[in-house]
Amino acid sequence: MSDSSSAASVRTEDRSTPADRQLGPGAHALMRQNFGNIGNAQFQHIAAREVAAPHPPQVVEVAPRTFLIQPGMANVALFETDEGLLLVDAGCAGDGPALLQAVRHISQRPLHTVVFTHGHVDHAFGLWAFLEAGERPRVVAHENLLGHYARYAKTAGLNAAINGQRPGANGRSWPSAPEDFVVPDITFRDSLELRIGGERFVVRHAKGETDDAAWVWAPQRRVIAAGDLVVGYLPNAGNPRKVQRYAEEWADAAEEMAALDADCVITGHGDCVRGSDAIRDELLTMAACLRHIVRHALDGLNAGLRPDEIVQSLAVPEHLTAHPRLQPGYDRPEFICRNVIRRYGGWWDGHAAHLLPAPVAAQAREICQLAGGVTALANRARELADSDLQLACHLAEWAYLAEPQSEAAQTSYVEVFGRRREAEPSLMGKLAFSEPHRRVAAERTKSGR
């Protein structure tokens, strides 16, 4: 397989901006564990067509004429038929040229159909390379994909900020212009049956990480292309900074896929799942885990408990949390629980003072005064971190919010949350616990230090 980095227009790894520097030690390894072929440059330019993944695509033939291709951080499924090719997803924008090369290395048959499993930036934006090369496939997606695109355009600045993105050659950090999006030719609501080369492919809708999610079942091959409904780690059903996720419907989809007795699942990220027993085990355990969290959240809401009481009392059974392919490397059970609470219970946390609160800086200054000053509170946070890191984070943040220019507060804030970040298993948690480092760096830049 030829390396896409040979193309003059494609820029690959920039080792001067490592993810570890942004998210702490071990972050890049965790990203590789979750996403595979992603590097420091593409991590910060996911929407840039000129920034490719650092390594050539990995290609695995999982069944006759059926391939898993990993051009970047997301997987792509390729089904070869006598009539042409069915491609499921197209990766990031920068993956397009390498994906095109990988597909054409496998087969010279025309690209007949492309199915987008959802509209996320790492799954539906690499098709431009095929279109510019003269390919004219029909594109299929769920009807909610257009709303997903519109939401991306409406919140481009927000998505760029929370995902740590930098502008590409076109000046945009996130898809927002009409030319950034490939609009589907065919949309569907619940299910769509495709016939390609005399073979049947079934496209099913299932809310999960998004409301436009879809998956593909190839019954003659006994292969599922699941998109992000199956990823090899705890489902991203509770992302703290993203729009609503759908844990209940995700469980429904997992159970529906498990009932098909498939021989292989091509996942949205990471390694595929092989063997009907392994597939059923993973999917049914995933469904049971999600249903346990949903049931706990709803029981708490119906009992009149506050969100913090519900989350703090969550205990997922060990036989569910111990599954090796449901580990919290990206999301956490607590985040999923909060997402269910948000869906059914609104945004208020149940504490009366938080409904129309005083400014957080004013709260923090009053707490610091009671504690004997900013330095005293900052020092206590560092001391407490040895025995109760979770509580120490509150103290460190109060000290910083009370007096952002204080060196003692800045040092405590970065140090305490640095320890919290290193101890955190989930990538989403690491991102959140990196916020103090960004805030302090910005404050020091502002003050010329």
From TrEMBL:
Residues 73-269 form the Metallo-beta-lactamase domain. Residues 1-24 are annotated as: Disordered. It comes from the Bacteria. Gene3D superfamilies: Alkyl sulfatase, dimerisation domain, Ribonuclease Z/Hydroxyacylglutathione hydrolase-like. This is Alkyl sulfatase dimerization domain-containing protein. It comes from Streptomyces cavernicola.
